[in-house]
Amino acid sequence: MALIPRLDIVSLDALELDPSTKGLPYDAPRLTVGDVGSQGWSLLAGDLPLPVAVIRQDVLAANSAWMSAFTAENNLVIAPHGKTTMSPHLFDLQIADGAWAITAATLQQVGVCLRFGVKRVLLANQPIGRPAIDACFSALHTEGGFELYCLADSLDGVAFLAEGARRNPPPEGNPLRILVEMGFIGGRTGVRTRKGAIELARAIAAAPGLELAGFECFEGMLPTPETADGLIDDVAAMALLAMEEGLFATSARIIISAGGSAFFDRVVERFDLVSFPYPVLRVLRSGCYLTHDSIAYAAAFKRIVEETTLQLPEGGLEPALEVWAMVQSRPEGGRTMLTMGKRDVSHDAGLPVPLRWYRPDGSMTAPAELSPGHSVVALNDQHCHMITPIDSPLQAGDMVGFGISHPCTTFDKWSLLMLVDEDYRVTGGLKTFF
Amino acid sequence: MALIPRLDIVSLDALELDPSTKGLPYDAPRLTVGDVGSQGWSLLAGDLPLPVAVIRQDVLAANSAWMSAFTAENNLVIAPHGKTTMSPHLFDLQIADGAWAITAATLQQVGVCLRFGVKRVLLANQPIGRPAIDACFSALHTEGGFELYCLADSLDGVAFLAEGARRNPPPEGNPLRILVEMGFIGGRTGVRTRKGAIELARAIAAAPGLELAGFECFEGMLPTPETADGLIDDVAAMALLAMEEGLFATSARIIISAGGSAFFDRVVERFDLVSFPYPVLRVLRSGCYLTHDSIAYAAAFKRIVEETTLQLPEGGLEPALEVWAMVQSRPEGGRTMLTMGKRDVSHDAGLPVPLRWYRPDGSMTAPAELSPGHSVVALNDQHCHMITPIDSPLQAGDMVGFGISHPCTTFDKWSLLMLVDEDYRVTGGLKTFF
């Protein structure tokens, strides 16, 4: 079972966009992904139908550079979580800025990475089910080379992977590399005890075709940085224990990994406390840093800046992703309805925040700030309910740009996002694969 | 500005699927939408990677037939809300079962209808912004004929539409047909007063290229059937008032319309109270009846069955849409993690409910029920947290089928859903366009 046996498209830019793609002008010609940036479209000129999701390319580039500096200064590599954006163009940017691998959550996502030329993927889940497991082993045979790391969190799971290796043995020198996933009581996946973890590590080390590559956790489910510390410590302690027990193959690259986008400072601080007898690769897997956001991760980053003992690079993360909608009507003075809904913007970690507005009739030279009295109170499937001060300047036909919370659940609502310059002129199209 | 000037694909079955489409087997050959049903795939044989969204075709057909009978028996026509599914194959089914039009929420959705041959669309929103308005008038010139109804809820909005008609006059005999949208204080769009509504009706009637077609509301935002009654009554009362004032063109088909999927019995009951001096078309716009659901609309339908004074057709609506996921691990006896998350299933009106399970190792002949002690407590982006009885039969690699709440926000997470028979064999692919 080949993971992607049918792929002859390797250039994303050459991929033709479906003409019904949300966000494309209604009168757009047939075009490829690569054509989007050369159409001369401008958000503020009214060329784009709203709602539309835009990414400010200067902010994006600065965020990517900031994380590159942060990881370099702290003896980390990054395998940014690709599930956030599922945009191969953004994977390319991250790799160009030094990403060691791309992280994925599912085999469909691994397939997208493979399709568009990513050479090393960390699948941050235990592959389960014969289609997924067979696809993993198949991917190891990719011409030109492909390294795949995945997780294990149960002996049953390891047994399934070992069966997969028997069915479809990996090529010499390219085993399925496995990190034991550490979890916590009441948490998500991941083995709950150190005893369970060492048993898993032994089972992996003993299985032909599998290689113990290290230990990892996802601490982002925990409520506070303090509670995350213990889980991160488990990862380092287990790696040490497995070294002492000689469970790593001599050829193995030994990895310790953690890191959502909320507590990545703590990952460094805790890992720094441990010294290892063998070289260890410290892999951070944050995904949301790239576009950042205006609410949840904005607050998380503020906490990092205020609390961390680390020296942070100049500048900092800024929100790059905005969704723009149009005022449909103001049926009551204090209530404005806009053309944006649950299908267009994340709503699972805070409702979008109005940032600025623009009237596309030639009367304004640039978007203007909106006063704090404007706030979103509800989203329906295709509508946004915004409370507005009675003297708000907004009227039907005005455009409003919103900051979002939780990039993952905004990206997945768009198969095409627009990359824009500082004047909101479209410079490219970011195709996503959800 | 043509709405869809670039469409040469008119056959959905001939459309090639992107190889990265979620839900497709990893080793699927390149295929078109029309090929999906002839691959011999079976959910229970383990051919599909999980998660996958499936629609039981027998239940779907029965729901469609039930609504067809309900509307026919109650002097209604249905313009089912296409935004729910955005699946042109399902539009075809609805039209074959007598749908008078397809309802849409956005111009992108109108474009999808037009692309795949729908001849009459009710856009249940005020078009706003030059791209959207120009696209409306452009669509009226579609070769072979295309009737477009839309809403208006402010004088500014009508002025924009009138300008659009001046820029791009509709062809003789095919004006932009407009329903005045009635709203309520604290609600969504829609004019708040009868005085405001009659002013709008006059403005529409006076504008060349626009035609007053009637009045409508969306009562589904109201908390109870009793509160919905007043809004439905407004619609009928306004139509009567506009008739008395002579605002309808003699050629106009006069429409009164309402109807989400929760209170559609009340629409009939309230409209039945009014008699009109001219023929009136009563248009229901429910969308969720087609797949129905296992939670929110299941409860709403139960209320209808218990309370309505109407004679209902035999049978009733049943849930047709399920999302299947795989047990990834049971890291604690009472907690099971599955391969399904916010990106795969609706979570805005209740978390999914586990219905049945299956072990794809040949030991079971059919899915078995799950005891009530199994319940979903949380979803992350790509994970499902399920509480399980300690003696639950579930283990890693087992499949679990979930019922969903709110079809609209499950459909939009899949660009391809699988149509299945009673044994979960794939009989077709439903491509969606969100």
TrEMBL record, chains A, B:
It comes from the Bacteria. This is Amino acid aldolase. Coiled coil: none annotated. SUPFAM superfamilies: PLP-binding barrel (SSF51419). Residues 320-421 form the D-serine dehydratase-like domain. It holds the Pfam family D-ser_dehydrat. Gene3D superfamilies: Alanine racemase, D-serine dehydratase-like domain. InterPro entries: D-amino_acid_metab_enzyme, D-ser_dehydrat-like_dom, D-ser_dehydrat-like_sf, PLP-binding_barrel.
